[in-house]
Amino acid sequence: MGSAAEESPEDVLAEQVAYYRARAPEYEAGALWPLGPELPEALDAFRPAGSVLELACGPGIWTTRLIRHATDVTAVDASPEMLALASARVGAERVRFLSADLFRWRPDRRYDVVFFGFWLSHVPPERFESFWSLVADCLKPEGRVFFVDDAYRTTDELVEGERSATIRRRLDDGTAYRIVKVPYEPADLERRLERLGWRIEVHSTSGPCYWGAGGRERAAARTLD
Q: Is the pLDDT of residue 183 over 90?
């Protein structure tokens, strides 16, 4: 791997994909899971009904919960290995699995709900606005968004300092990869989304996680009328 000075944003994103492809077999053992009831209960209360798009579905942990409410789910991930796990977990009934780089992918239809679990923190800060533009393009006019995430970063991961969004994570065999991990504070994240025209309430949990729910400003306002 190159030095930090030689790394370009594209290099780090490619390394992030490589990390999750390699980590697929050990993902659940090393993830912050189980997380307790707060996040699943919040998602169930949100009721992601209709056609649902799941971005960065990983091994399908959240897909199983989405399909309880949804008419159909389209689950997208850059890792074929993760998609294979998700397909084995969930099955193909009412679920369409797509292998794609989310920073290049564009939707072929619009959805009632867009969901992403533990993905927003892996979006580079300079791509924050373009990512939320993609989310808007994926939604029907009255569409809704729900996401869960965390700001968890260990001291030894902060190889470029606390202010950097790039950290280093290792597989069980010690192989190191650079990935993006942005430690959002819920209140700050809510304000940033408001400036982009979203009305999304972001809630802290009793642990290291947070969740957000809402929609675009005009759609949210009509919902409240």
A: yes
Cβ atoms of 41 and 68 closer than 8 Å: no
At residue 214, what is the residue type?
A: G
- Give the pLDDT confidence of 20-39 residue by residue, as tens digits: 999 999 987 766 555 779 99
Residue 1 reports pLDDT greater than 60: no
CB burial readout 111-127, b (16+ within 10 A) else e:
bbbbbbbbbbbbbbeeb
Query: Cα–Cα distance between 69 and 67 in angstroms, integer?
Result: 5
Alpha helices in the chain (DSSP H): 9-23, 27-30, 38-46, 63-69, 80-90, 128-138, 186-195, 217-224
- The per-residue b/e assignment along 66-101, b for 16 or more CB within 10 angstroms, e otherwise, is bbebbebbbbbbbbebbbbbbbeebeeeebebeeee
Asked which of 2-16, 97-111, 161-175 is least confident by mean pLDDT, the reply is 2-16
